[in-house]
Design a protein that fits this description.
With 318 residues, the chain is α/β, with parallel strands linked by helices. It is built from 12 helices and 7 strands.
């Protein structure tokens, strides 16, 4: 069959019937400030987008209590040997994949701690997968196959109504997991069926319905805030320094030395020597330099304090 040809028995008079849903979320409303967007100069288009983006941090600030509750749920889950899951579709799902992927190299967190699930599977990271987000059974099946009691499941859906995400949340709840919904629709009906609801009020998009814009930016900010706070609460930050990072390249190896210099006040030479004696283990070198203890004692103190730097320092000081 050649391109453009038509099957002899094809019924071209009947259009393909597919489900239609009209979404009433704020992200689908018209933004009066951008009504003449296609008539504006390039500079004015950029100004309108930039001014709209300024609303996002304030909208995120309004839901910090809900984010804090989610952080506490995640810390409890991870300390209990469980996992955090992200379920999303489209831009929302891709942001979940991005957040989970960046935690291991930044904080040396076990890769199984944060698991991301994208409607349509891995291919949907690079291209749209038709109707994947409308598959509530697919979301439920994905959750049923990996979520366990004690886990935390975060649903990511700009509208707050994505069937794939809601299916995953319902199945996760049935398995005994805690559930959170993050969306850009403060009035989402699903708010009543999750443990924590994070409805960020970003309002209508500059391009109507394009939730890769303000709604996506808000989700990125919330995920950054949430996962970073989780790592801080789990002791993977000392002061404001990354002490659990994985040195996978020359820049990061240099950063490890810089962290030791900043945290201890020691010279670069002393910091480099301590890191070498610790076998490249930044935490051990840090505890050794701050406490004045030998590397072996620093390593033992970390082991006794669940790998917490401040706990190890307290043990060595007592």
């Amino acid at each position: 069959m050649t391109a453009g040809s038509v099957e002899p028995d094809a019924d071209m008079s009947a259009p393909l019937e597919r489900p239609i849903v009209r979404v009433g979320a704020p992200t689908e409303q018209r933004n009066p400030l951008s009504a003449d967007l296609d008539l504006m100069s390039t500079r004015d288009v950029l100004t309108v987008i930039n001014e709209a983006d300024r609303r996002v941090p304030a909208a995120v600030a309004a839901v910090l209590d809900e984010i804090a509750a989610t952080v506490d749920l995640a810390v409890a889950a991870l300390r209990g040997g469980h996992r955090v899951h992200y379920f999303g579709a489209g831009t929302s799902g891709r942001l979940g994949v991005l957040d989970a992927a960046e935690l291991a190299p930044t904080f040396n967190s076990p890769r199984h701690w944060f698991c991301s699930h994208l409607a349509g599977g891995p291919d949907a990271m690079w291209r749209a997968v038709e109707d994947a987000e409308d598959d509530d059974r697919g979301g439920a099946a994905d959750a049923a196959g990996c979520v366990h009691a004690g886990d935390l499941v975060v649903g990511l859906a700009a509208s707050g109504r994505t069937p794939y995400v809601l299916g995953a949340l319902a199945a996760s709840r049935a398995k005994g997991a805690s559930t959170v919904l993050l969306c850009a629709n403060p009035e989402a009906e699903a708010a009543r069926s999750v443990d924590v609801f994070i409805g960020v009020d970003t309002g209508p998009e500059v391009v109507t319905g394009s939730t890769r814009m303000k709604a996506g930016t808000a989700q990125k900010l919330v995920l950054n805030t949430f996962s970073t706070a989780v790592m801080v609460r789990l002791g993977r930050v000392y002061s404001n320094l990354m002490i659990d990072m994985v040195a996978t390249n020359a820049k990061l190896r240099g950063r490890m030395i810089s962290i030791l210099v900043e945290a201890t006040g020691c010279s670069e030479e002393i910091s480099r020597r301590a890191l070498n004696e610790a076998g490249g283990d930044l935490k051990t070198a840090l505890v050794s330099l701050v406490s004045g203890a030998e590397v072996a004692a620093a390593r033992a103190a970390l082991a006794r304090s669940a790998d917490q730097v401040r706990g190890a320092l307290a043990l060595l000081a007592s």
